[in-house]
Amino acid sequence: MSASDRFNLIDRPWLLVRDQTGAVREASLIDVFASAHRLSGLVGDVPTQVFATTRLLLAILHRAVEGPADLDDWEELWEAETLPAAAIEEYLRQHEHRFNLDDPEVPFFQVATLRKADDSFSDLSKLIADVPNRHPFFTTRIGTELRLEPAEAARWVVHCQAFDPSGTKSGDPADRRTKGGRGYPIGVAWSGNLGGILVTGRNLRETLLLNLIPYEFQPQEKEKADLPPWERRQDGVGVEEDNREPTGPVDLYTWQSRRIRLAWEDTPQGRVVTGVLIANGDRRTPQNMHPFEPHTCWRRSPNQEKKLRSNVPVYMPLAHDPERLIWRGLQSMLPESGAASGADRLSATVLVWLGRLVVTGVLDRGYPVSVRTIGMKYGQQDATVAEIVDDALNMRAILFDQGAAALIGVVKQAVENSESAARDRETRRQHRTRIRGRRNRRTQERGDGTRLRNT
């Protein structure tokens, strides 16, 4: 197969996008960046796919503009009508061969030499998050007969690197971590640890820029460039360093949590994906990753401090509760005026950055933003997908200005009052249920003269 026949993500449509008429279509990377100002946003086969693909676009944008370095660079991007499409395409062309989904040597987000001892592949239900593993009762996707077009397979590969469950994986004989032909659990893929938060604007261009945090605002390892995998040496089946430190947000946006290899088949209609190998990749525990990870809030963990015998606060990502609507967690997102070191909660860096834009006057205080929360809840031992969280709340940018303490206080008090009212209502409901239960038991006792016992 010639290079021009490869499924290259730069030119081939594969990302799901919604235009401003509401229509959904597939678009290439080039198309998405060039038309971002005309698109409402990204769409996914599942909401977590939007989180994963948005962060992929952010990694590309960071590298293409070599920053932005500071607020001035960011403001220049914001004031332009479009994204710098020419610079982005030039950057992508420099790494074009690394964006081939089916490259025989360096396939995108995969390892070409990955194998099992018997050279078999798993069925594609391992890759697709909307197929309940071992419980395919409510899906039209059926086991070994499942095939994927390259575009959908590409979306699921990106999603797998971000949200794959934990559990036993395929074990490559060349990986020193493989025991008995298996790769034993190293935890969920990186984004699965997060209570994901994205700030969304009026179109995709604004959404990407609002989440594009300048380097001066976010620390990274100064000795190392913050590089995505397509700018680094191709990964092997194993790892050189267990639980290595990230070099910055771009590294985490594209963290290679798994080693993946797709199986392909040629058909008269074109190439399709028929199987997959998913093995353990780069392990990354979430403790104190708040300097590098901007898209989640954080909670202080006394248990982790004891476990690690840490003399400094240990922060863990604040995961989303599927039972709680976004407004009930609003207090953890809004800024604290003069928050002390060692606070119980840390707001997401992307929201702190939004506040900086308001304080400096770069963003109008009345600018309408939507805070979207996306996350995944896992089942037993984090080995299966249980639920996907997806919610959004529309607000004005002024709420993220630390100087608007009075207004923020009013909002927080309103949330507390609503929470209290909800608790009171639930207490009254439970009380009425208990009363009805006692009445029913008395009625039954009078009817047959026998006291009913719970069994």
Overview of the molecule:
The strands form five sheets. A three-stranded antiparallel beta sheet has the order 2-1-3. Strands 4-6-5 form a three-stranded antiparallel beta sheet, with no helix packed on it. A three-stranded antiparallel beta sheet has the order 7-13-14. The chain starts with 14 loop residues before the first strand and ends in a 7-residue tail after the last helix. By secondary structure, it is an alpha+beta fold. 39% of the residues are buried. The protein has one domain (3-403). Helix content is 29%, strand content 17%. The chain has helices at residues 29-34, 47-64, 71-79, 85-94, 150-163, 204-210, 249-253, 302-308, 349-359, 405-448, and strands at 15-19, 24-27, 39-43, 169-170, 178-179, 182-183, 196-200, 258-267, 270-280, 298-300, 315-317, 345-346, 368-378, 385-396.
Descriptive tags:
alpha+beta; 10 helices; disordered C terminus; 3-stranded antiparallel beta sheet; 17% strand; 455 residues; globular; 29% helix; 14 strands
